[in-house]
Specification:
Helix content of chain B: 40-55%
Strand content of chain A: 25-35%
Number of helices of chain B: 17
Distance between the termini of chain B: 27 Å
CATH architecture of the largest domain in chain A: Alpha-Beta Complex
CATH topology of the largest domain in chain B: Rossmann fold
Structural class of chain A: alpha+beta
Helix content of chain A: 25-40%
Strand content of chain B: 15-25%
CATH class of the largest domain in chain B: Alpha Beta
CATH architecture of the largest domain in chain B: 3-Layer(aba) Sandwich
Shape of chain B: globular
CATH superfamily of the largest domain in chain B: Glycogen Phosphorylase B
Radius of gyration of chain A: 29 Å
Largest sheet of chain A: 8 strands, mixed
Number of strands of chain A: 25
Number of strands of chain B: 14
Number of domains of chain B: 2
Distance between the termini of chain A: 47 Å
Oligomer: heterodimer
Number of domains of chain A: 3
Chain lengths: 524, 417
């Protein structure tokens, strides 16, 4: 019997999906686009209870259109057996949403399985919204049944929309398909890159009597919500062999970025396969954004108050000395934004102490792990770590007053660059070393110019420094910042403050961000 | 008449350390000269303070010109007040004197920020600081002895980080803070050349530190001694000090045990007497060391009795295993006319040169040999006694101090420049 086609729609730019049912288990399907014939890349079958049978009459077929020239007036036919069905062009656009809204449960779930497996393009907009809405009312599975057991140890998100899951899955019978998953919030869906069977879980052996136990039944997965999160994030674990329910739904708990990173690092430690370690991290990162800083503005009058955006990486009490020295060098009123999520009494006392000794004025403008871009801020911004600002020369350009030809100024501590400048062999590429070696730096420039660039810098970075380093590198490569290379000797890095927190595995937040940057660049 | 404020990290009414004693003697001498002098000391920390102060009380007066601050306890690494309100109060208190001269003995409990702010507020005043040890250089109690016990010859960020298990950057900050604070003084004073040299090696510009010994008024010259007196005293040795590890009493006890073990054939019995602690105090510090029969513990003594007690001995032993600076024991021994056997480093080597017998520091065998080299030798004792010169008295100190007080104040120079 030929296919009874219910839906036919384009999926992304290079696929076409056909859904329906047929009692023929050996269905012969072809797609005709004008004179071009295509066999399906993938056909899945599922039961359709609306047909009053447990037979797998349901059909979901995927055709790969890559390389096919679909002109606007191309005719599309689906051939099943000897029958040709012409597809009206509007169906290609509207049928996906119709499937989500009125398709029978089993078909909707089959479509979700292909999404979770990465076989189809993740829907966005109204289709995604409709899918999320339908999932609210869809039948779900318990975490433990005669057919399978699922344990969720971690199901976490961070404010940047990154997600992490880990746990274990034990089916009662062998399954061809692995465990897959989707993440969703109130408006969007995304695929979870799930590494099933990637974690050793010998502790599950007592379950061996009920389920298939291998010893490596742990999974780890990661995702990135494509848009800012709206509402509660949940992860739908799509259970292989369970076609009559959407799957197991687990709420994702929000974590502060650093805590989330610590959890990720712990899972990475537990993953024996290096490819899984990298893949897990890469799956939650966007590609490095491609943008260019705007062309240089007019010469910049460096006067008036300075917003000191400070990563204080020295003992809290030393903040007083850093502020006093920096304030003396700037010789201008200082408004401090301290990159701390909370200010302890020692920091507060240190700021007050410094204020007593800076006649030009020192005021705490705010604190937090990132600058509040909506706040009213002084016209000039200076960023640096305390250890850098304290140890660089008093005459460094970031402290200078008077009109600057280039509005942005970058002071680098670059041992290789300094040796090269002093007659050594290779000066190399300072911009490359700047990122590769995480060279200490201070950056100053007009706040109004930096704000939009900060908004474009990757939010996946844990530290404000990584975003500003990203901006500084772009400025450097575009020759839009006055750069000076200092010898960097002697220089000792600070080891205190939130950015120095050691994550499982030994990375601090700066090194963690450096790894993120490499993965984002690789994905770009 | 100039108003002078002597500021000390402690108060000798509460503790009797060398620095605060020298500061207080200076204050008393200034009063005896009719100067408009004031003394500001401090309790060391909350434990001391609780005995004397109400919780909100900042200062008590021991006399019309003699004050004691409530020390809140100050982290010796940072040398800053933990609460800026305490610093505010202290700045206001010190400013209230409106003094022409502020002479600091040490800066612990006072704070680097207090000194900077006071200097900024009083550019015309004269600021002096006596360096009593190496706290500015060394965060290990200012002793320049590594935590391993090894003597430290120079501070550096990396070496200090290795010693004290802190990041090198912390020492960059500390050095900068200390040098900035010392930089605001018009004149730095050191009681020894050794200490001055250490500070100059560390970065204080040559010429900034004047060497003036602490003043010590002493009683009349020792009475003449007969040959029999000298012979009897040549077998009598003494230690004066406290049971702290760096004073090296354990080295002396080991040396005494070596002497007793090998036997000695002098007609003069050997006696080594320990002043400043009793045997129980010694055993608390060194429970495993056996005390030889020739050693006797004499317990504590009144500081003003020290010189007189020393006159009963042939030799005073100072076996400290840290550098020392200008120990009052050495001044007292000079006042008593009693020669010394001293560790061969730092202030001890400098201050006993010519009239003392040096031995290799921390080496009990060398100390035993030094003791035996003069034991029962009345002639050697007489020769060493003859080389002793009396210590600088307070009048002499004052004359040198007045010279240090001349010249325009650093603040006013900067203002003019």
């Amino acid at each position: 019997m030929a296919l009874n086609m219910d839906f036919c729609f384009g999926d992304g730019e290079a696929m076409l999906v056909v859904a329906g049912w047929s009692s023929d288990h050996w269905l012969d399907l072809e797609l005709y686009i004008d004179e071009t014939r295509l066999a399906p890349r993938l056909v899945t079958r599922h039961a359709r209870r609306d047909l009053r049978t447990a037979e797998r009459f349901g059909v979901l077929a995927v055709f790969d259109l890559a390389g096919i020239d679909m002109a606007g007036n191309a005719t599309v036919h689906v051939k099943s057996g000897q029958e040709f069905t012409e597809i009206q062009p509007e169906r290609l656009v509207t049928d996906q949403q119709r499937l989500v809204e009125i398709g029978v449960d089993e078909l909707f779930f089959a479509w979700l399985r292909l999404l979770a497996a990465g076989e189809l393009t993740m829907p966005t907009g109204e289709v995604a919204q409709a899918a999320v809405t339908r999932l609210r009312f869809a039948p779900l599975l318990p975490r433990e049944s005669d057919e399978f057991g699922l344990g969720v140890d971690r199901c976490l998100t961070d404010p940047a929309g990154q997600g992490l899951v880990s746990g274990w899955f034990l089916p009662a019978m062998g399954q061809v398909q692995p465990l897959t998953a989707l993440a969703l919030d109130d408006q969007q869906l995304c695929r979870v890159a799930l590494f099933a069977g990637a974690l050793s879980r010998t502790d599950l052996e007592p379950y061996g009597g009920r389920y298939l136990f291998t010893g490596s039944d742990g999974f780890a997965g990661a995702f990135l919500m494509p848009q800012p999160v709206r509402g509660q994030v949940q992860v739908l674990f799509v259970i292989p062999g369970q076609e009559n329910a959407a799957g197991v739904l687990a709420p994702a708990g929000p974590r502060p970025p650093t805590d989330f990173a610590a959890e990720l690092c712990q899972v990475q430690i537990d993953l024996p396969d290096p490819a899984h370690k990298t893949g897990l991290r890469a799956a939650m990162l966007p590609p490095m954004p491609a943008w260019q800083p705007p062309a240089a503005a007019a010469p910049w009058p460096r006067s008036g108050p300075v917003l000191l955006l400070l990563d204080h990486d020295l003992p809290d009490i030393d903040l007083r000395d850093v502020l006093r020295r920096t304030g003396q060098r700037l010789g201008r009123p200082v408004e401090l934004f301290l990159l701390r999520d909370r200010l302890g009494s020692v920091l507060v006392e240190a700021i007050e102490g410094a204020a007593r000794e800076l006649p030009q004025g020192l005021r705490l403008a705010g604190s937090g792990m990132a600058l509040d871009l909506q706040a009213a801020l002084p016209e000039t911004l200076l960023f640096g770590r305390s250890s850098t600002l304290f140890q660089i020369d008093a005459g460094a350009g970031v402290f200078a007053r008077g009109t600057a030809q280039m509005p942005f100024h970058l002071t680098l501590l670059d041992p290789i660059g300094a040796i090269g400048r002093d007659g050594g062999a290779a000066a190399g590429d300072p911009a490359a070393r700047f990122q590769r070696d995480l060279l200490p730096f201070a950056l100053s420039g007009p706040t109004a110019g930096l704000k939009p660039m900060l908004a474009r810098a990757p939010q996946a970075f844990l530290t404000q420094e990584a975003r500003l380093r990203h901006i500084a590198e772009r400025l450097l490569r575009a020759d839009l910042a006055g750069a000076e290379i200092l010898g960097g000797m002697p220089y000792f890095a600070g080891r205190a403050g939130p950015s120095a927190r050691t994550l499982p595995g030994g990375l601090d937040l700066h090194l963690y961000d450096a790894e993120s940057r490499k993965l984002m660049e690789a994905a770009a | 008449m100039s108003r002078i404020v002597i500021v000390s990290h402690s108060h000798p009414n509460l503790r009797y350390g060398g620095g605060e004693v020298a500061a207080y003697r200076q204050f008393q001498h200034l009063l005896s000269l009719g100067e408009d002098a004031h003394f500001v000391g401090s309790t060391i920390g909350p434990e001391d303070s609780d005995k004397f102060f109400g919780r909100s009380q900042q200062v008590i007066a021991f006399g019309p010109r003699d004050y004691c601050l409530q020390g809140r306890g100050m982290d010796g690494f940072q040398m800053e007040h933990a609460r800026i309100a305490d610093e505010d109060w202290l700045v206001e208190f010190l400013l209230s004197f409106g003094a022409d001269i502020y002479h600091f003995h040490h800066f612990w409990n006072i704070g680097a920020g207090t000194i900077r702010r006071l200097r900024a507020a009083l550019p015309e005043a004269r600021f002096l600081c006596t360096l009593h040890e190496m706290t500015a250089i060394c965060a290990n109690h200012g002793q320049m002895v590594k935590r391993s016990g090894e003597l430290c010859h120079a501070a550096s960020e990396v070496a200090c980080a290795a010693c004290l298990q802190r990041p090198p950057a912390d020492f960059v900050l500390r050095r900068a803070r200390m040098q900035e604070m010392l930089g605001v003084f018009d004149q730095l004073l050191s009681p020894s050349e050794f200490l001055r040299d250490r500070f100059e090696d560390w970065g204080i510009a040559p010429g900034r530190i004047a060497v003036i010994e602490n003043g010590l008024d002493h009683a009349a010259d020792p009475l003449p001694e007969t040959e029999d007196d000298l012979l009897r005293k040549s077998g009598r040795f003494a230690f004066f000090g406290q049971a702290t590890p760096t004073k090296g009493l354990d080295v002396l006890i080991r040396a005494a045990a070596l002497i007793e073990a090998q036997g000695h054939d002098s007609d003069q019995p050997l006696a080594i007497e320990i002043h400043g602690l009793d045997e129980a105090g010694f055993r608390r510090m060194w429970p495993d060391l056996k005390v030889p029969e020739c050693v006797r513990f004499c317990g504590r003594y009144r500081p003003q009795d020290g010189v007189q007690i020393m006159r009963g001995y042939g030799w005073i032993i100072i076996p400290s295993v840290w550098w020392e600076n200008s120990p009052v024991v050495i001044q007292e021994a000079r006042a008593a006319g009693t020669p010394m056997i001293a560790s061969d480093i730092g202030g001890m080597a400098e201050k006993t040169a010519g009239w003392g017998i040096p031995f290799r520091t921390a080496d009990a065998t060398a100390l035993a040999a030094a003791i035996l080299s003069v034991h029962g030798d009345a002639q050697a004792l007489a020769e060493h006694k003859a080389r002793i010169t009396p210590p600088l008295d307070l009048a002499g100190f004052h004359q040198e101090w007045l010279r240090a007080c001349t010249g325009p104040a650093k603040g006013s120079l900067q203002k003019a420049g």
